[in-house]
Amino acid sequence: MKARSALNQKIKFKFKSGTLSPDTLTPADSKGFTDCSSFICWALNIPKVVPGGILNIEGIYKSNLFKLSEHPAEGTLIIYPSTVSSGNRVTGHVAIISKSHGGIPTKIIHAHPDLPNVIEETGLDMFFGKPSIYLELKA
User: Are residues 3 and 96 in contact, defined by beta-carbon separation less than 8 angstroms?
Assistant: First the structure.
């Protein structure tokens, strides 16, 4: 899984940053930054900019490159879209499932500003209580 190669890299987090090309060695832009959606595009070998727009969190969710997944497994995305609640914007998040057991995801790899190394393999804690969905690349 390409996502694992970004673990323990000296990459920093900044919203709306990251490589636009999946062909770079890391998901970071030239200044060393990435965000969760840029990391996912890089890990899945898809460009960040596609016909119809940019694959940010909403772009991934609405893109015709993905379909809903009923059976999340390694490589499936877990996403909760950005929302507005009581006038406050809640920024969404996207991660790639790295381990599952019996169809239940147990580990994800993702980029997040609260993680010590920015890109880490963790449990799914930050998705608990969020309206999450699973997406997989269309064949």
Answer: yes
Could you give the number of structural domains in the chain? 1
Tens of pLDDT, residues 70-115: 889 999 999 987 776 667 766 789 999 999 998 889 999 999 999 9
Taking a C-beta distance cutoff of 8 angstroms, is the pair 74, 1 a contact?
A: yes
Residue entry with tokens 């996403």: 79
Q: 78: exposed, middle or buried (C-beta count within 10 Å: 0-12, 13-18, 19+)?
A: buried
Is the pTM higher than 0.70?
A: yes
Q: Is the alpha carbon torsion for 124, 125, 126, 129 positive or negative?
A: positive
**Residue 81: other Cβ atoms inside 10 A:** 18
Task: Supply the CATH number for residue 36's domain.
Answer: 3.90.1720
